[in-house]
Amino acid sequence: MPTTEAIRARIEDSIEKMPSLPTTVAKVLQIANDLNSSARDLLTVIQMDPVLTAKVLKLINSAFFALPNKVSLKQAIVLLGINTLKNIALSSAIIGYMGKSKVQVRAFDQHKFWEHSLGTAIAAKRISRRVVTDPQQWEEYFVAGLVHDIGKVVIALSLPTMLAKSIMVAEEKKLPSNLAEHEVIGLDHSEVGAMLARKWRLSESLVNATLHHHGPTETDDRLAWVVHTANYYVLTVGFLNSGDCAVPSIETKAYQVLSLAPESFAEIMGNLGEEIGKASTFLTT
Amino acid sequence: MKVRFWGVRGSIPTPGPSTVRYGGNTTCMQLVGQDSPTIGGEYLLLDAGTGIREAGLELMKMPKPLRINILITHTHMDHINGFPFFVPAFVPGTVINIYGPVHYEKRLEEIFAGQMDYSYFPISTAQLAADIKFHDLKECEFDLGPLHVTTHYMNHPVLTLGYRITDSSGKSFIFTGDHEPYYDFINEDGGGGIDSDFEDVQAIVDEQNRRLVEFFQGVDILVADAAYTPEEYLTHKGWGHSSTDHVVDWALAAGVKKLVLFHHEPTHNDDKLDAMEQYARERAAGKGDGSLVVVNARESLVVD
Fold first, then answer.
1. What's the pTM?
2. A139 to chain B: which residues are within 8 Å by CB?
3. Which of A58, A64, A275 to mutate to test the interface with B (most CBs of B within 10 A)?
């Protein structure tokens, strides 16, 4: 059993080599290699891929850009321009291909991961429309929902055997994935995701929302509460992630913090499956 | 402080009879003192296109050892490909400091070394006798002796910095490097109008363009990429260059005193450039109060 330090070191090592998801890789390659493809198509793909989104934000917030304020994904896109975006997407897609063989945890289903991440992003944005008046801020809620489980990809990449074991434990004991990961690895994907977000200099609020999405009780940050709630409802409507053999509970304080009644969520989550289906169709045509 | 031009062409050198008056060398200019080729005892060049070869020959006539600063706007070929022929770099005792933006995957030094890889050039950067140091820049401010330098990110398909330089007398100069106005390429190129997912992009674009005019504010000499006529720009949108209309309008909005049209298109011969200069002057006179001076950059021109 490796020590927690050794585990952390392995995770740190893998963070730089994050592959994109096979779900989006083929589409990225198709668009990036087509001179006549539209910027909008490429952006739509980037917006649907947690890894690509995080990579674009990583680049724009990286030390060499040194912009005074943390920028949003759209600002990043305007600043970087379409050619640089194509390059990031392409190199990420190529790493994705090489990384495919690395993410070899049969129990970790990348397509399910993508569906769950995108579902949480859409749900977080829908909730944000009810609790935040400034449309400029809705994008950040979408991004926070999209990247909240990114730690799972890092664990799959750096600790495949342990992840497989934690998925088995979750199945045996009917546990949510974060508790099973704690039991087997000593930390869970929310902590690993926050490590990545910190290392990639994503905004403090994204770090926070990723870290606390299973229990934001220690924070008053509304973004973290929205992601927590979005994650819960996406799981209850059936977009489970690998290793989620039980739906983690929702903190009841969430309804109070967001001033939303539990009854309103049926409407908020309506036709979520349809929207994910549309995204899936876009990626495969 | 004055600016002297060694190369004014964009993209690729264009030697030949039709470009004799403006010159065919690619980007290189020098800032010189009012009565001396140095400022604070050091030479200052901007960009290292093919024009830097002749600048180097001129510097070789000066007392040694030479201390040279080179500010690079971006690392596209036409802005760095004269460097392997810059003679002072081969002379022991020369000190060269090269400043420029980083690419997101490579440092400035790696990019310079790349074009002197053995497949392309027989001498590597490691073999150059001069003491050469590279400095990766961001949006920042720093001093070069008595000069104060402010950098600003520009809009071009590789990370590009514009430089604003102020001397001890308060006189100011800007070189934009290659630049195109920010525009909403997401909705304009996407077909089918505004996508609700990207409806707020225009506001970000407007803010970037506003920041740029702020950067130009009140400068004495603005050397600006004005590669295209307004008609040509329409078919070259997204290529990373501006039109004469863009630069005249920015100069007027920012209260610039002297506008130098730069980065001449390889397809533009001398007569075409004359016509573009005339057009820009008329636009400046028509839209402004008549005080903005507009001039085409040409090799060996000195602008005070």
1. 0.90
2. 200
3. A64
